[in-house]
Amino acid sequence: MNKGFRSPRVWLKAASIALFLLSSSAYSAPSEELLSYELTHDMLPTPDNFSVTVYADGVALVHYPEYMTSAGDYTVELSSSEIQQLRLLLEHPLVQGFNPGQVKAQKKNIDAQSNELFEVSDDSWSNFEILTSDDATKSIRWANVSVDARRYPEIGVFRKLAEIEADLLQMDQHPTAKPVVD
Fold first, then answer.
1. pLDDT class of 4 with cuts at 50, 70, 90
2. 124-150 in b/e burial notation, b at 16+ Cβ within 10 A?
3. Which of 2, 7, 18, 129 is the most exposed place for a label (fewest CB within 10 A)?
4. Within the chain, what is the greatest distance between any pair of CA atoms?
5. What pTM does this model have?
6. Per-residue pLDDT reduced to its tens digit, 24-54
């Protein structure tokens, strides 16, 4: 895995948010983790990455790094219908059955039929840790998910992962988003 994925700084921030929640209100300890996500960039060799952890009880801990407009840490309380919607995306057969070798082969076949030359010089890595229906963890690490979703619409898993990623990147816009004050 990339050095930035699950970096100590991300864990420290997540722990501080969790402690804040426990100490400042009637929140109990976070429930089961549904999803952990981190977006890293080859161009930015920094341990400060965008990250989101979503728990089964609807609490989401979000960190926007310094270089992003919404820099800072947030807590978000997702409704039961929002959690159900997220679960449906995470449990989708395309996501649960994601096979990087198979997807690379599909891309290669599509590219072989095209005369287009395309390259991304600085990759953005989407790192997903997803709780599966049998309580195991599914790890997905893929470069340039949103780019591949646009370039390869026939590969459905890219659309699903890009949809999840887009929702996570906009967590600061959620009506219950609250900045965490240090």
1. very low
2. bbbbbbbbeeeeeebebebebbbebbe
3. 2
4. 59
5. 0.79
6. 444 555 589 999 999 998 777 677 899 999 9
120-157 confidence digits (pLDDT tens): 778 899 999 999 888 889 999 999 999 999 999 999 99
Residue 41 near residue 56 (C-beta atoms within 8 A)? no
Query: Given strand 33-41, what is the order of strands in its sheet?
Result: 137-143, 124-131, 33-41, 50-55, 59-64, 72-77, 178-179
| Beta pairing class for 178-179 and 59-64 | unpaired
Alpha-carbon distances, residue 76 vs 3, 60, 63, 81, 172 (angstroms): 27, 5, 11, 14, 8
Say which residues have a Cβ less than 8 Å from residue 36's Cβ, sequence separation at least 6.
51, 52, 53, 54, 128, 129
